[in-house]
Amino acid sequence: MARQYEPEYPFNYTFLDDDFEKLYNTEKVTGSLAFGFTVIAIIISGLGLLALAAYTAEKKTEGDQHSQDIRCKCWINRWIDEQ
């Protein structure tokens, strides 16, 4: 029917949901990329916090070990002086 009125311009049809799919395809890709980078950032920050906790624990135990060495040496010196 359309050909008999306008033969030069064929009747092209598309479904509306296909048109919307084309419009929002870039937003879907952008959202996926943002989600991926967010996950990577959370993993990196978690590793940083783990490293900071390990460093702090190492420093605290290092100081305790030094104090124990000093106490032990003082005790040995007192024991030697008593002999």
Write the layout of secondary structure elements.
Blueprint (H helix, E strand, L loop, with lengths): L1 H4 L10 H67 L1
Explain what you see:
By secondary structure, the protein is mostly helical. Helices cover 86% and strands 0% of the residues. It is built from two helices and no strands. It has helices at 2-5, 16-82. The chain is rod-shaped, with a radius of gyration of 37 Å. The mean pLDDT is 80.
Largest sheet, if any?
A: none
Distance between the termini: 121 Å
Taking all Cα atoms into account, the compactness measure Rg is 37 Å
Structural class: mainly alpha
DSSP summary, beta strand count: 0
Q: Which parts are unreliable, with pLDDT below 50 for 5 consecutive residues or more?
A: none
What fraction of residues sit in β-strands? Answer: under 5%
The arrangement of helices and strands along the chain is HH
* Basic shape: rod-shaped
Number of separate helices: 2
Brief summary of the model shown:
The chain has 83 residues and is mainly α.
Spell out the key features of this protein.
mainly alpha, 2 helices, 86% helix
